[in-house]
């Protein structure tokens, strides 16, 4: 799994996946990320802010190191939220 190459622990990913299955939490995350563009997801400051907001919604305490690993991972993926293939790639990575 490529997120492990960035130092992100599988335990963190599993906790986040479990918490994100809650319908209320899922809706809050959708609202947070609904307006995100390709350019937002390539801007380090915006990705850091989105990461902090998502961690707050999910009630996860992230260390500076974990936060930096997540930001680096997101930037490396070059995600375009309007590209279905990019979204499928992400979905398959975290199933």
Determine Rg (CA atoms, Å): 13 Å
Average pLDDT, to the nearest integer? 87
Instruction: Give the number of helices.
Output: 6
Class of secondary structure makeup: mainly alpha
Q: What is the approximate shape?
A: globular
Which strand-content bin applies to the residues?
A: under 5%
Helix content: 55-70%
Low-confidence stretches: none
Largest sheet: none
> What's the total number of strands?
0
Distance between the termini: 10 Å
What's the helix-strand series? HHHHHH
Description:
The protein is an all-alpha fold and 95 residues long. Helices cover 67% and strands 0% of the residues. The chain contains six helices and no strands. The protein is globular and about 30 Å long. The mean pLDDT is 87.
Features:
single chain; 95 residues; mainly alpha; 0% strand
Topology readout:
Layout: H1 2-5, H2 10-20, H3 23-33, H4 44-57, H5 64-77, H6 84-93
Helix pairs in contact: 3-4, 4-5
Could you provide a short overview of the structure?
The chain has 95 residues and is mainly alpha-helical. Helices cover 67% and strands 0% of the residues. The protein contains six helices and no strands.
């Amino acid at each position: 799994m490529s997120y492990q190459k960035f130092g992100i622990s599988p335990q963190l990913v599993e906790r986040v996946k479990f918490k994100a299955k809650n319908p209320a939490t899922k809706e809050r995350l959708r609202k947070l990320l609904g307006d995100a563009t390709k350019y937002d997801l390539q801007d380090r400051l915006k990705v850091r802010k989105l990461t902090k907001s998502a961690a707050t919604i999910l009630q996860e305490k992230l260390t500076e190191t974990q936060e930096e690993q997540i930001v680096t991972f997101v930037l490396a993926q070059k995600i375009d939220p309007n590209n279905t293939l990019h979204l499928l790639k992400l979905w398959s990575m975290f199933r």
